[in-house]
Design brief:
The chain is built from three helices and 24 strands. The strands form six sheets. Strands 1, 2, 3, 4, 5, 6 and 7 form a seven-stranded antiparallel beta sheet that branches. Strands 8-9-14-13 form a four-stranded antiparallel beta sheet. Strands 20-21-17-24 form a four-stranded antiparallel beta sheet, with helices on one face. A hairpin with a 2-residue loop joins strand 13 and strand 14. The longest helix has 11 residues. The two termini are 36 Å apart.
Length: 320
């Protein structure tokens, strides 16, 4: 018997959803939790269907999803709800479409792993969490053509533009968008006119604005959540077993931004606490998987730490 099972895809606790799936920078897979098999009660599996108003998920509808692998909508998520009987906490775990079906093998991944298969700390399989269908009506129409307008975020660091979930009339964009080499709205327009001409004509009338002009009979609603693909950096803090004073940070060629003065150590959590005050959670994630190193995935430019005008530490490009 396995005492604990781990899931990287817990998307709700006690009915409160985590960041899934409101971030437009990409799919967020929930949080990591270790669950005690001995105290778990399986409630049931459900389709978690997002209800979208404008650009936000307002709530979720839950439909029983036993012995079915066909989601009711393209953006429905299949979740297994379990209860920890020690504290009466409910957990929602994102599961595969074919999980919790009597005719599959195993019929329940959670029960299968908790019965002792999968190593000393079994891990629930990682599944793709769909992005919600967010669509808009045209910004203008003349009865023949619909015009849709999209604002691309400014991109001073020449990052790739990502579009995690383009939808046209409720269907995913085809072929799938490939961001390789696309760092300007003009480059996207060139790609779209070559690959998405079936939806209409794409143009870049000014700056970061992109438009789609489509026949009224062709596209009635569409949506694109455009974001910047984060770049990876790594602070090697090994040398700071002897602490060093830091009171500022600079991103790329920008100006130095003041930080509350602190002593930089080889504990990456100390640096995380300082940087979180200047780097938004929507565009930055931190990793401490390598001892005495801090991994940063961010749309900010290369971070450099300062004490006055003196450089204390520079984040290297790439992952730790």
């Amino acid at each position: 018997m396995t005492n604990f099972i781990e899931s990287n895809q817990v998307v709700g606790v006690n009915g409160v959803a985590f960041v899934y799936p409101n971030y437009v920078t990409g799919v967020v897979n929930g949080i990591q939790k270790q669950l005690n098999c001995n105290n778990l009660e399986i409630i049931n599996s459900f389709w978690k269907v997002p209800f979208v108003v404008g650009t936000q998920v307002q709530k979720y509808t839950y439909l029983v999803a036993v012995n079915t692998s066909t989601p009711p909508t393209a953006d429905s998520l299949k979740v297994l709800i379990v209860k920890d009987t020690t504290d009466n906490a409910d957990y929602e775990i994102a599961i595969a479409l074919t999980d919790n079906i009597a005719t599959t093998s195993p019929p329940s991944q959670l029960a299968y792993l908790c019965n002792g298969t999968g190593g000393t700390l079994p891990v629930m399989p990682t599944v793709t969490i769909p992005f919600p269908i967010i669509q808009f009506s045209p910004t203008s129409t003349d009865g023949t053509n619909n015009v849709f307008t999209f604002a691309f975020p400014a991109n001073p660091n020449s990052l790739l533009y990502s579009i995690p979930a383009p939808w046209f009339n409720g269907l995913a964009g085809a072929p799938a968008y490939v961001p390789a080499g696309i760092t300007t709205p003009g480059q996207f327009v060139t790609w779209a006119n070559s690959n998405w001409s079936a939806y209409g004509t794409w143009s870049n009338p000014s700056g970061t604005i992109v438009t789609l002009t489509s026949l009224v009979s062709n596209v009635t609603k569409c949506g694109m959540q455009i974001a910047l693909t984060p770049a990876n950096f790594c602070f090697n803090l090994t040398a700071f077993s002897t602490p060093a004073l830091v009171n500022g940070v600079k991103f790329g060629s920008g100006t130095t931004i003041a930080l509350d003065a602190f002593m930089l150590t080889n504990d990456p959590n100390v640096l995380i606490a300082a940087l979180q005050k200047r780097m938004s959670a929507e565009s930055t994630t931190f990793s401490t998987t390598v001892a005495h190193k801090l991994g940063i995935a961010t749309v900010y430019a290369q971070p450099v730490l300062y004490n006055g005008t003196s450089v204390v530490a520079t984040a290297a490009s790439g992952s730790c």
